[in-house]
Design goal:
alpha/beta, 6 strands, about 25% strand
Length: about 130
């Protein structure tokens, strides 16, 4: 039995299968995930689990080299934006419109659906390498 880290079988397997430059998303409970994209549905009810809980668990296990957010988060959810920028302070990023973020999600490897019910807590992460290159 696994002693620590992510114990969700589906999510643990998908994270282990990430290669350099693969992209994946952590999304709120209402984000439309494009057809054909695998969904790890962790949502139980509104607010459970939170975006932060899921992001913290994933960042403990995955190397991230780049991320993309919807620029609407600046106005609509500055507290969550500060959390994300703090957690990924040394990682390059970009902001696009929410519509563009949805379009970019068509190319992701998988999406993790949380129970988050706040505005614009959706992020596309790009896998890095966990060793010096």
């Amino acid at each position: 039995m696994k002693k620590r880290g992510i114990i969700n079988v589906q999510l643990a397997g998908l994270l282990a299968g990430l290669g350099h430059k693969d992209t994946f998303m952590i999304a709120d409970g209402g984000m439309p995930i494009p057809q054909g994209v695998e969904i790890v549905d962790l949502a139980l009810c509104g607010g459970v689990p939170t975006f932060r809980q899921v992001m913290d668990a994933i960042l403990d296990e995955a190397e991230v080299e780049y991320y993309t957010l919807a620029r609407e988060i600046v106005e609509k959810n500055p507290e969550l934006l500060a959390y994300i920028e703090g957690k990924l302070s040394d990682v390059e990023s970009e902001m696009v419109s929410h519509v563009e973020l949805k379009e970019l999600s068509k190319g992701i490897k998988f999406a993790v659906r949380t129970g988050e019910f706040t505005p614009y807590p959706n992020i596309i992460l790009r896998a890095g390498v966990a060793f010096p290159a």
